[in-house]
Amino acid sequence: MTAGSEDTLVQMDRQDPLAAKTAAFDVPAEQIYLDGNSLGCLPVSAKQRAREVVEQQWGQDLIKSWNLHQWIDLPFSAGEKIARLIGAAPGQTICCDSISVNIFKLLSAALMMHNERHVVLSQQGNFPTDLYMVQGLARQLGEDRCSLRLAADDDIASALTDDVAVLLLSHVNFRSGALYDMQAITEQAQARGILVIWDLAHSAGVVPVQLDACRADFAVGCGYKYLNGGPGAPAFLYVARRHQAQAAQPLSGWMGHMAPFDFDNAYQAAPGVAGFLTGTPPVISLSILDAALDVFADVDVAQLRQKSLALAGVFMQRVAQSPLLAELQLLSPVDEAQRGAQLAYRHPHAFAICQALIAHGVIADFRAPDILRVGFSPLFLRFADIGRSVDVLSRIMRDELWRDPAYAVRHKVT
Ligand SMILES: *Cc1c(COP(=O)(O)O)cnc(C)c1O
């Protein structure tokens, strides 16, 4: 039996300790979904909760539900379910807003804690919204209070100079899948007196993260990617307990007040991470995320990691073995220890190839200018799916199916 044969894949599925989890999802029939890194599949638990929260909690129980169904606690209860996945002890993680807004809050807080410095250091290849948020804050505060500096993605260490206030990095690179050593970088930055904000968008729920053990300062992450919380699901943020007394954020809305229902005119931040809340929580989407997180309750992140790497390994090996796919150039690190849960391939016609894949039932995504990206979400993918997806890709290349003009049309979302 060769490493890539169908029998091997069937056997890998049979031995997969997470195999039963596919039943916890509504995976569309006749499709292979390699885009869990962009929008996770629908968990059955989330679908049930959506119905319950709309029909019963909103429809029947109405305003009583804030207490009756603990709507008011959702930012914390969902936050603690995520905390387990990112190595955070209780009382440091909440669900709210988007990553962008949470970065604004944390950046502002970190700069206020460090007001003798003004440089925010980030990586050249960071997800643009992270950089845009720094640029917006710089416009508001002035360049003498906040200014963005970019370091080469593969050389953060030499950019950690004494004028840097905050280091803002994405743990896993959204394009290449390259993974930073959180422990080492956090240590190096802190040795220079730099506060670190980690963006866990492509890590939470799939890559082991130990925020407390790494002595991370702050973190943000995404609810709709590997956590499967649904389109536009609320994000999360983490504030290390040791910073909670002095970290103050500027979006001081009533939900972050210590006694919102006293309706006092003077803002007084709630103690702890609760002070990072702003407005009324989006109860419907937060409920759906909360239910989606229950899928993780009996899962160990190490298992998720092992399976996602194994799935990616099968994909990578099969692509490498197929002469038809020789033009696809792997951009992701080959070394598993340096990579998240996705693979990126360069090809001058990556956009059309991706569209052809989607038309043939393999959902991947394209990232400008020339990247075909495939994500290996371990909760709902099977090894046999991976074998089939490379077969489809090979057929598209062999028969040049991607040349169909229909696959050149670009829509608003790519
Ligand atoms: C997906 C993603 C985001 C998304 O930010 P939102 O404000 O939640 O839309 C931010 N950062 C990274 C690294 C991402 O991958």
From TrEMBL:
Keyword Oxidoreductase in annotation: no
Sites of N6-(pyridoxal phosphate)lysine modification: K225
Catalytic class of the enzyme: hydrolase
InterPro entries found in the cross-reference section: Kynureninase, PyrdxlP-dep_Trfase, PyrdxlP-dep_Trfase_major, PyrdxlP-dep_Trfase_small
Pathway entry: Cofactor biosynthesis; NAD(+) biosynthesis; quinolinate from L-kynurenine: step 2/3; Amino-acid degradation; L-kynurenine degradation; L-alanine and anthranilate from L-kynurenine: step 1/1
Single GO molecular function: kynureninase activity
Binding site residues for pyridoxal 5'-phosphate: I99, S100, F127, P128, T129, D130, D199, H202, Y224, W254, T280
Gene Ontology CC: one annotated term: cytoplasm
Domain of life: Bacteria
Keyword Thylakoid appears in the UniProt entry: no
Keywords recorded for this protein, A-Z: Hydrolase, Pyridine nucleotide biosynthesis, Pyridoxal phosphate
GO biological process: anthranilate metabolic process; L-kynurenine catabolic process; L-tryptophan catabolic process to kynurenine; NAD+ biosynthetic process; quinolinate biosynthetic process
Required cofactor(s): pyridoxal 5'-phosphate
Pfam short name (any one): KYNU_C
Gene3D superfamilies xrefs: Aspartate Aminotransferase, domain 1 (3.90.1150.10), Type I PLP-dependent aspartate aminotransferase-like (Major domain) (3.40.640.10)
Catalytic activity: 3-hydroxy-L-kynurenine + H2O = 3-hydroxyanthranilate + L-alanine + H(+); L-kynurenine + H2O = anthranilate + L-alanine + H(+)
EC code: 3.7.1.3
Subunit organization: Homodimer.
Assigned protein family: Belongs to the kynureninase family.
Biological role stated in the UniProt entry: Catalyzes the cleavage of L-kynurenine (L-Kyn) and L-3-hydroxykynurenine (L-3OHKyn) into anthranilic acid (AA) and 3-hydroxyanthranilic acid (3-OHAA), respectively.
Protein name per Swiss-Prot or TrEMBL: Kynureninase
Organism listed in the record: Pseudohongiella acticola
